[in-house]
Amino acid sequence: MTSSSPKQKPVGTPSSFIKKYLYMGVGFISLFLAYIGVITPGIPFTGFLIIAAWAFSKSSKKWHDYLYSHKLFGPFISNWESERVFPKKARTLMITSMYLSSLICWFSTKSIPITSIVVFIMIVVIIWTKRFPEQPVAIIL
Q: Confidence class of residue 12 from pLDDT cuts 50, 70 and 90?
């Protein structure tokens, strides 16, 4: 007689091994893009940083802990995880870099359709970030 319950894969199976390294790959690529985003206008580091933290939480405690203890990234990720806070400084930097990038896009392409698409995407991202508070909510007892 066969059982109708599905069989569970034991931890350490080849599929979990592959998933771990896929998540690590996503984490490293996102972390690389976050570092690039810190110094390059037009590439916002925040989204990539959040993706890196998520991917490392599923694959590598070492790299996850590295992000949380990082001088620049650590406070941002901690606030994001605990309160879903998007700091004013990060938002201002992001909007400024997006503005500069839209100017670069316009002057380099002189294409209204391309620039319009880029600006539309930037506006959507700005609206998304405005949904989150700039600082943790104080709990008054």
A: low
